[in-house]
Specification:
With 213 residues, the protein is of the alpha+beta class. The protein folds into 2 domains: 78 residues, 2-Layer Sandwich (Pseudouridine synthase); 105 residues, 2-Layer Sandwich (Pseudouridine synthase). It has 4 helices and 12 strands, in the order E-E-H-E-E-H-E-E-E-E-E-E-H-H-E-E.
Length: 213
């Protein structure tokens, strides 16, 4: 497995590329201790987690180097002033015009009998919004490449929202129908860009990671 790549480092924070198949933080059990946070801490022992990506998702993650910066960045995520965009390949051809933003606004709740799955639940779900636009439609493969912008940050939000509109992400072993789940060796979801205001000097930073699929 490719080790995490440090995209940017200064005295306050790190921007790291997480490969697909690597946990963001340790899981339960001895077989789930290898993860991005621990690998990064071998280089930067003080590094602190600010947010996570699903194990199957690749792309950019932000980490803090002091508790104070961690708190500021956590508050920025809560205030939705840190902007993340993803690229995904989904099953089926979407008819929306290329480059036009659309929005999925459906509440998400934990599916207790089938944890860790999430479901759309209009009564108990938490408000969840995802913006999306078509980048490219492949009529031969019957797939569409999308640019995604989560407004909220619910667990599995992108995967659940796209499934809800009938276009599961290709390679999604947790949510997609079997034929879609095994159409790729990996989940075709990548955290492509990250933009935020630096917590110390106030400058806007933007990073992009090439899409590996």
């Amino acid at each position: 497995m490719t080790p995490p790549e440090i995209i940017y480092a200064d005295s306050a924070l790190l921007v790291v590329h997480k490969p697909a198949g690597l946990l963001s933080v340790p899981g339960k059990g001895p077989d789930k201790q290898d993860c991005l946070s621990r690998q990064v801490q071998q280089l930067y022992p003080e590094a602190l987690v600010v947010h996570r990506l699903d194990m199957a998702t690749s792309g950019l993650m932000l980490m803090a180097r002091t508790p104070t910066v961690q708190q500021v960045l956590n508050q920025a995520f809560a205030a939705r002033t840190i902007h993340k965009r993803y690229v995904a390949v989904v099953n089926g051809c979407l008819s929306a015009h290329t480059g036009h933003w659309q929005c999925i606004d459906l509440p998400i709740a934990l599916d207790w009998p089938n944890r860790p799955r999430r479901v759309i639940n209009l009564e108990t779900g938490k408000p969840s919004q995802t913006r999306w636009q078509v980048l490219h439609t492949d009529t031969t493969r019957q797939q569409t490449r999308l640019l995604l912008e989560p407004i909220t940050g619910r667990s599995h939000q992108l995967r659940v929202h796209l499934l809800a509109i009938g276009h599961a992400i290709v390679g999604d072993r947790l949510y997609a129908p079997e034929v879609v789940a095994f159409a790729s060796e990996r989940l075709l979801l990548h955290a492509h860009s990250l933009e935020f205001v630096h917590p110390l000097h106030g400058q806007t930073l933007r990073f992009e990671s090439p899409v590996p699929f």
